[in-house]
Amino acid sequence: MYQVVPGGAGGTITDVIPKQKHSKDTRPLVGAGVIGLVLVIAAVTAWCYYIASLRKAELLKTQLLDLNKDGYIIRNQGGSIVFRMDFRSGTLDLDSCSKEGELLSCSRTTDRKLNFFIETVRPKDTVQCYRVRWEELVPDISVMHAMTYKFAHWYGGAVSAIQHWPISISGQQAPKPFVTSDIYSNRNEFGGILESYWLSSNATAIKINNSVPFHLGWNDTEKTMYFQARYNDSPFKPNPGEAPCAELSYRVCVGSDVTSIHKYMVRRYFNKPNKVPAKAMFQHPIWSTWALHKTKIDQEKLLDYASNIRKHNFNCSHLELDDRYTSRYGEFEFDPKKFPNPSAMFQKLKSDGFLVSLWIHPFVNYDSENFHKCVERGLFVREPTGHLPALVRWWNGMGGILDFTNSAARDWFSSQLRSLRSRYGVASFKFDAGETNYLPWKFSTRTPIRDPSFFTRRYTEMAIPYNDRAELRSGYQSQNISCFFRPIDRDSVWGYELGLKSLIPTVLTISILGYQFILPDMIGGNAYLNRTDGSRELPDRELYIRWLELSAFMPSMQFSIPPWEYDNEVVEIARKYTALHESIVAPRVLELAGEVLDTGDPIIRPLWWIATGDETAYKIDSQFLIGDDLMVAPVLEPGKQERDIYLPAGRWKSYKGERFDIKEPHHLTDYPVDLDEIAYFVWV
Asked: Which keywords does UniProt give here (predicted)?
């Protein structure tokens, strides 16, 4: 900033000047000169620090992201803050940071070394992405970032027992493993269909890398979600031979609107199906034995069930023979007492035009003959040392769980399914369970897996040979399995906790996670004891009818409790809506299903899909779109024969023939909808 010159202050003096005695009158001048010199030095020093701070401030900006020692913010093109992330596992030492091109990196926190970087990527003109990585260099130190969610409405992540749209966060939760779980039995856990992806109404999306030992928590007081990577006290494991050094890495992308940014993220990060399931799955209902007969199903009841379907003039994609047709769990032979002649039974069903699928699961109970065979061949998931099979408890007892990372276990399981198909002509299978909560907290597999949910992925792969009519209830990175996925069992109740009101939020969430062939579980719910609204063993009649109407506008329909268990009016309503599903809904859904193979776009869409600038549309959880041009508004409240309906701007024609040509969004208040009706509107 300055230099020393000869003869100047601090320079070399070449002339000798005789000392002179200062008079008292000159001393104030000397003092003033000293003070002036000090002030000049101070000013120069301050200027240097100021210039340095400007350079540092410039260094800590990359495109629309501002980094500080405690976190970062991202702005949109208009300058508004759309994303904020705070660091909760350390404070960056900004003096360790540098910038090269679009890469901003730091090598230290205030108390330790680390690898940290943010890289700016602009994959297309309308999308700006930031790759973020915080890597610890010392084992067993966790990494946690806290995302503020108050700037927008958020969607995605996982299905849950109490499902809302958008996500509704309440209470505080320390970060816990983000892995698949059976939320019917464990209602506070994450659900069986899960992806580490979230999307917001301000056109921001975040995708956690699949390699992260990811734990999720939240705090509704702070309005934050906690994204944590850790190996200690966790079912996640590092790769063999690697130190347990945690790394939290993810990508944040910002777009011009929520629909376009989601389309980009799906195309970039999600698998897509490579085929469309059987056409009949979309056109005709599936008929399951479960809710009606539970485990008391037998040969006579199955044949009677099929006979009644034909007697009441209903179509059928296939019959689903559910639990329990074997003597013990883990066997693949029909119970001779309940099914004395399965070959004749299948021949009769085939001659009557019925295909049959069978319920299947990954467990072999300890009292099954196959248990000892699987132990001897090493086909089960094992305890951590790998020496002994791990015993697991599930809803039908205790036994081993097949290790689907083991090719021998996959081959054995597949051979059992092939045998059932070849002997009886079984069309497909309902693959139940598959969630990681049925694994031990600590376990080992033939092929080591870092992420427990990869077990779910391996299990879903068993459905690929049968994906024309297969059904899965768990999924992780499983979009390309190309079969129908269903949410966990629904209770026969009206509310948001696994009830009728949860269906639309759950289906929308599954759609946003990239699963588009959705089977919304059984009409009327499962009629479980003490979890059913109704005066008898059957679900409430009105609830059943409203559930039926909503299911008619889903990609596939599934009956179990048949409409003839009620009365003739319910049978007529069921005929009306199965016919409407086949004639109006299925053709549109099949058209969209073909597009899914290329785009991954949802078949069932939220209203904001076509109204990205409309704040109200982001909060609608009781209406949905099929494609862009068919909007559905079911009645979901008991005792109601009217409802408020939100119409986005556009030209709409109601199912009653009314036309609405509106340039602004419009509310229809107390719109009449009779018990045998569901409101729907077509884009004209």
From this structure: Glycosidase, Hydrolase, Membrane, Transmembrane, Transmembrane helix
